[in-house]
Specification:
Blueprint: E1 3-7, E2 10-13, E3 18-25, E4 32-39, E5 46-51, E6 58-60, E7 68-73, E8 78-83, E9 92-100, E10 113-114, E11 118-123
Parallel strand pairs: 2-11
Antiparallel strand pairs: 1-3, 3-8, 4-5, 4-9, 5-6, 7-8, 9-10, 9-11
Length: 124
């Protein structure tokens, strides 16, 4: 059974940093591209960042470029999202997702598995 478990969310002041983790089990992690998505109250789920299966390619939503960094440790089956210079607009539930295949994608419908999410709240 595939499980993706996010952790690292919390309450932080604007300008602060958080590092999200996503521990994967039940799948061959290095065969999956991974992504982070977020959903704020009353809004649709949106793409944040994605990384290819071996980590050689990344993509970011425009508003997080230069502030967020996605990475992965295939030896530990773990995905990360380093978030710096956080803004109140970053407040959302953050989800990690796995997509079978090499290439990263921004399209949430392309992902096969999802975690339960972790809340990130940025106070201004």
């Amino acid at each position: 059974q595939v499980q993706l478990v996010e952790s690292g969310g919390g309450l932080v002041q604007a300008g602060g940093s958080l590092r999200l983790s996503c521990a994967a089990s039940g799948l061959t992690f290095n065969a999956y591209a991974m992504g982070w998505f977020r959903q704020a109250p009353g809004k649709e789920r949106e793409f944040v960042a994605a990384i290819s299966s071996i980590g050689g390619s990344t993509s970011y939503e425009d508003s997080v470029k230069g502030r967020f960094t996605i990475s992965r440790d295939n030896a530990k089956n773990t995905l990360f999202l380093q978030m710096n210079s956080l803004k109140s607009a970053d407040t959302a539930v953050y989800y990690c997702a796995a997509r079978f295949g090499r290439s990263a994608t921004t399209q949430f419908k392309a992902y096969n598995y999802w975690g339960q999410g972790t809340q990130v709240t940025v106070s201004s």
